[in-house]
């Protein structure tokens, strides 16, 4: 069994029930794992907690809008 299967992934709260472009996130000790909800078999990427928290803050501040 792969390590990712033991992670408790949850769909983003910003993803609606009919939304196709979704990510799933799992909380890990000291990190977060992120994967594509439509292709979970493709694997995931992990970010240290500090990096993930900085990303979430930037998203909430709309730092990535054009």
From TrEMBL:
Domain DUF397 span(s) in chain numbering: 8-60
Q: Which domain of life is it from?
A: Bacteria
Name of a matching Pfam family: DUF397
Q: What is this protein called?
A: DUF397 domain-containing protein
Which organism does this sequence originate in?
Streptomonospora mangrovi
